[in-house]
Amino acid sequence: MGGIGMSALALILAERGHSVSGSDRKLTPAMQALETKAIVLFESQISNNFDYLKALGIEAPLVVVSTAIPDTNPELIEAQRLDLTIWHRSDLLAWLIEQQPAIAVAGSHGKTTTSTLVTTLLATVGEDPTAVIGGVVPCYGSNGHTGNGRLLVAEADESDGSLVKFKASLGIITNLELDHTDHYRNLDDLIETMKTFGRGCKRLLINQDDPILKEHFQADACWSVQNFETADYAALPVQLDGDRTIANYFEHGQQVGQITLPLPGLHNLSNVVAALAACRIEGIPLDALLSAVTELRSPGRRFDFRGEWQDRQVVDDYAHHPSEVQATLTMAQLMVQSGRSPLPRTPKRLLAVFQPHRYSRTQEFLNAFAQALVSADALILAPIYGAGEQPIEGINSELLARSIRLVDPNQSVFVASTMQELTGLVKQHSEPEDLILAMGAGDVNSLWERLSQQGIGGEASCSPAIAA
């Protein structure tokens, strides 16, 4: 229950009056936040947990598991022995989606950000949506929220194909690119899964700028940041800075306003247009939305400023696919080069710290990662975060470093064999006024704590997170 997706579901069920319990192998911040909701928390996953629930008068709980739970899990084995009803996480989310009109946001990249932006717009204009998001929504300070409004906003994860169960009022697909090769055989397999998701939605909204979506999908509406004439909703950039984006906004071929976003990067502009389009399709007045865009903030771990250490600014980002890495680095370099930044100070140089996520993904996208990472001024690679995968012989961060040097022999790249060594390399090779950008979906997000706990540096301070 400590994961970003499961904890949101637990929170919403508890707030709706259900009796909720859950376990994880460690007490995560998400679980700690649930302690105030009268939720029974177990810090171990053992069969005796069911005996404790029985003593509380809970005889036959509905058991909800995530894809990460193996068949050998003691709680799962005990639930099967007791012949309890067992749902996958997606079954529970599908059930919630069926309870009210829902906007489900899918896609290879940007779905957490886009679903956060949709939620923020709806909240700002007074719609108070229920939200189940794979990241912390700044306006709620949580990844889950039980609203009193008409709509539910959900992030629809494609990693295991289970999003085909969701029957949303409005489905959104941000883009498509092969990922999760442990589940999908090839791109065609992913396309067919997403088509099934789209057919299950009453209406479908897609990104016209994505070539795969444009070729393979028929949708009720589309958005663009390239062409206002053929898209139902569009925003064409007027000015791209390191701390904002100014764009002309169009609906059905006509300019209806200009927006100034507190989010840099063309990819973020696309996410915002998707969110605006979704809200407009759901009947939200245009004037209210154009005013609300100034309140937009990104979810946690999306260009998340953590603090300053020895005159270096440390930022954490979830980017773990080549396209995400490229977009994040491009945005960071825009801050360095434009002299404008939402950070406390404009950085002078970009030091990227990247942790590859999964051996299979590193193997599949080795060259693409190398092409993306060379745009950093300096680069440090952490050990691969396996995420439960068994190592693949020869696939490691040293191999990625060699691939990077083939792309650019002059690129400064260092490889750490442990997280402790990683911290030492950052101390050794960073410079004052650097932006230290830690990217990855594993434990590289602990870098700020590792640096600050060594007694050199200050307290983390708040700054707007910038979505990537």
Largest sheet: 10 strands, mixed
Domain count: 3
Number of helices: 16
Rg measurement, Å? 22 Å
- What is the overall silhouette? globular
Could you give the distance between the termini?
26 Å
Strand content: 15-25%
Low-confidence stretches: 455-468
Which percent range fits the helix content?
A: 25-40%
- Side by side, the strands of the main sheet go 7-6-8-5-9-10-11-12-13-14
Number of strands: 20
Notes on the protein architecture:
There is one protein chain. The strands form four sheets. The protein has a ten-stranded mixed beta sheet with strand order 7-6-8-5-9-10-11-12-13-14, sandwiched between helices. Strands 15-16-20-17-18-19 form a six-stranded mixed beta sheet, with helices on both faces. A two-stranded parallel sheet has the order 1-2. Helix content is 34%, strand content 21%. With 468 residues, it is of the alpha/beta class.
Provide a concise account of the structure shown.
The protein has 16 helices and 20 strands.
Set down the secondary structure blueprint:
Blueprint: H1 4-15, E1 21-23, H2 29-34, E2 40-42, H3 49-55, E3 63-65, H4 74-81, E4 86-88, H5 89-98, E5 102-106, H6 111-124, E6 130-137, E7 142-145, E8 152-155, E9 170-173, H7 187-200, E10 203-207, H8 211-216, E11 221-224, E12 233-240, E13 245-251, E14 254-261, H9 266-281, H10 286-292, E15 304-309, E16 312-317, H11 322-338, E17 349-354, H12 359-364, H13 366-373, E18 378-381, H14 397-407, E19 413-415, H15 419-429, E20 434-439, H16 447-452
Parallel strand pairs: 1-2, 3-4, 5-8, 5-9, 6-8, 9-10, 10-11, 11-12, 16-20, 17-18, 17-20, 18-19
Antiparallel strand pairs: 6-7, 12-13, 13-14, 15-16
